[in-house]
Amino acid sequence: MSVSVKSPFGEFAVDTASPAVRQLASVLGLLLALGAVVVVPGAVILEPVAAWTGVVIVFALAGVAFVIPWPKIAPWWQLVLPVVTMLALGLFRAGTGGAQSMFTSLILLPLIFIAAAPGRRAIWLAIGTSVLTVAIPYLIGTAPWSDPLILRVVFTPLVFAVIASIINELSHRARVQVESSKLYADERERRLREVQASNEAREVALRELRASEAFNRSVWNAAVHEIAIVTELDGTIVAWGPGARNLLGPSAVQVVGSRNVTELLSEVSASAIRGEGEESEGGDRLLRRLVEIAGCDEQAGTLVELVRTEGEPLPTLMTCAPRKTPDGDVVGHIFIAYDMTQVNEASRLKDEFVGTISHELRTPLSSILGYLELARDEESGPLNDEQRHYLEVAERNAQRLLALVGDLLFVAQVDAGKVPMEFSPVRLGEVVRLSLETALPTAAQASVELVGEPGNEEATLAGDAMRLGQAIDNLISNAVKFTPQGGVVRVGVRREGNELVVYVSDTGMGIPEEEMHRLFTKFFRATTATKQAVPGVGLGLNITLAIVKAHGGRLEASSSVGEGTTFEMHLPVSPR
Length: 576
Prior knowledge:
five-stranded antiparallel sheet, five-stranded mixed sheet, 14 strands, rod-shaped
């Protein structure tokens, strides 16, 4: 341990456990004894050689003690210093009267040093050294062995043994207590460091939380063009974004906690979401359906109409995501709706433009075809083969252009929700047979085998024979175009429950999987088609899908690049 010592030069620490500092006790005791020799009349040096030898050894050891680097030496070597000091003090005692010396108590100073060492071996070392020290007068001949006081050689070490035992035990307890105190202090310091680190971590987390809250608040306040609505599981609104205020009208105070998100839907959207025959269902059913189609499961989104304060409908694209706790429990929903007014208007203008242009092109094309037909009738004179060939090319391209204009007009009608259909009983097998006959010359020219597979030729359904033929023609034409020479296209009809399925399967180039989701969009062209320079504008499948949907059916496709593609038209026998 160390103690603080104040001096004129300031305060400094003294390590009391250092052997050099402990040696000072013996030096001071010896100085006091020398002073007593000078002052006290009865205290005289009888054997100067022995006495002064002991003095020199003690002082020399004190000097050496301050030079030796004790921390680098094994602890037991430190006991050499008090052992030699005790023997040196025994010489001083032998020179100042031997067994009758008044300075016998000096031996206790290094004895304490030895006894305070760890372990019980220190006691035996102290006892052995004290016996030898007390016997020095007899060993060096300054006292006869017949001296009656020789019993002190036994009695005095016994007393010193008791003292050494007590000191050793007290030192042991003190060391245990010091060690316990040190462990307690270390534990306390460790806990203080942990508390400090925890406080620092909490401050950092608090700063990050505040920064995150500020960021989220900024993002929330910046969403002024999107409708953001947060609800409970039952649809009760708990947060109302600034965009909702701008686009719908009510303030957060008017809706939070008092209105349900389903109350914002227009009657048209609410009825469409519920489904036919379910208008009487409660709000829970409507909310579940809204969450389902808005994408809480698939992140798909849906088109819905929301109602403004003044009662006007607002077309929106709504998506939904679950609102979760940090533990992952779903406690509500987050609805995001985007204003589709401008998008719908742009789409309407585009379709109107396409429809108008297509309509305007149809009249001059019909006139051109009429005059080409008159020219081929040779009413204005005979035609040579080259002229006749030119007219045939012109007529063929005019027919292709007229067909394209017809497709564009049909697409415009589909987008406007006005698909012209004339339903009547239709033998689907007959429609497929006629489409195969139409496509046979093209298939033969492309060296593609066109196979009509038998089955269900007499099956009938209610539909538009001309439009169904148009849809099947599109599928067969695509299959032939995308199948290389030597390939096979198979076409047939089969029945599945209450549905008739027309399938067209080819061994062509196929469609990449990542492009399948865009297959039925307008003007889409697969990369396999563009790489092979296959002609087309990308309207056929979109038109086919519209015709199938108009019959209450669905169009499915599966494909593998390099292996082929299969299209299936699923048509209900009794259309919805």
